[in-house]
Amino acid sequence: MTSTVFLQRIADLYDEFKQHDARQSDRLKRYRNIEAESAKLLAMLVRSQQSKRILEIGTSTGYSTLWLAEAAKAVGAKVQTLEINAFRSAQAKKYAEEFGLEHFIDFWVGDASVYLAEANDPFDFILLDAERGSYVSYWEDLKRLMQSCGSSLIIDNVISHAAEVKEMLELIRLDDNFMSTILPVGAGLCLVVAR
Question: Are 190 and 158 in contact (CB under 8 A)?
Fold first, then answer.
């Protein structure tokens, strides 16, 4: 798939997902995918950092996964994506196949806390875009998985849902092993880098 075809197809998919969410009154039935400009920035960061091991926590229907996988393909990397909802993970896998990106993604279904607790190999790039109430409980494992200097963690929704991520951002701020900044892109991204 050429980059022009990818950009057109991903834009159409984003519109489709936004229309779906607009019809849902129940928050949990919405796909709640990352904003288009945030997803594009993630792909740019993967490319510029030449990230080889990419972890996504919260696949949903795979919008951000596709952007990460397209960047992973460009730099010779792989995306490990975690989703608790098996149906959504299956949807994301279907889209990955449509885009020809399935070989660059490992789909894992289950509670992210279980995966994080058992994971041993560090990641150079981590996207955290899941249920915000769990973030604090992930922090110790995330720190362990960001061992190398320059490893990046991106947390979504830090402006749109500031109160829900406040405790997590404070934990990061107080940790001398990490630097962080808020990027006013999309719903707000927090970029965390290991020192």
Answer: yes
